[in-house]
Amino acid sequence: MTDAAVTARALTLRCREALDHWQAPSHDQERLRLEYLALLRSASNGWSRACLGSHLTASSLICAPSERVVLLTLHGRIGRWLQTGGHIEPDDLSMESAALREAEEESGLNGVLDSNPLWLSRHAVPCGPVRPTYHLDVQYLVVVPVPGPPIISAESADLRWFGVDALPEVDDSVRALVRAAGERLGW
């Protein structure tokens, strides 16, 4: 087995372990958890964008709990306000490290990641040659002590802090993620 294959297998096992131990907060979230695990059992590269049809991704909702604000990015290609996140790369050690890397790359902020997934979201995306392709997103919470000035990355058209009660126009998946963060943070 090549070094790359060993690394990919180890990442798959860490993804499975994180989802095996996660306590889903609802029946719908449990259904998604089981779908994600089934993909990881059937596809050795289920975390990779090379896995056609569906693959895991990792994202983070960056929060400053003391101010009750969340950082959202206006995605440059999709044109919607979302949490930071993206594809898991072969050199990521885990989904958690991928989520934190994406948060830092897309915001310029350094935060503390809660290693327990916050929420799961399955959504169709224009990604790769197979349509539809689904991102099976594992979403984490990243906490910063104060809502510092973010740095807009090349992937974003805008990046802003929003009060949890004053979100811009977002879809239901982002609202659910913000609600889950509020529950975890005691808002």
3D structure, described in words:
The protein contains 4 helices and 7 strands, in the order H-H-E-E-E-E-H-E-E-E-H. The longest helix is centred in the first third of the chain and has 19 residues, at 3-21. A hairpin with a 7-residue loop joins strand 5 (112-125) and strand 6. Helix 1 packs antiparallel against helix 2. The termini are far apart. The chain has helices spanning 3-21, 27-42, 95-107, 172-185, and strands spanning 54-64, 69-75, 81-82, 84-87, 112-125, 133-143, 156-163. By secondary structure, the protein is α+β, with helices and mostly antiparallel strands. Strands 1, 2, 3, 4, 5, 6 and 7 form a 7-stranded mixed β-sheet that branches.
Q: Shape from CA axes?
A: globular
How far is it from the N-terminal to the C-terminal residue, by CA?
49 Å
Largest sheet: 7 strands, mixed
**What is the typical, i.e. mean, pLDDT?**
94
The proportion of strand residues reads 25-35%
Q: What's the helix-strand series? A: HHEEEEHEEEH
Low-pLDDT regions: none
* Tally of contiguous helical segments: 4
- If you compute it from the alpha carbons, what radius of gyration comes out, rounded to the nearest whole angstrom? 16 Å
Number of strands: 7
Helicity range:
25-40%
- Summing up helix and strand content along with how strands pair, one would put the structural category as alpha+beta
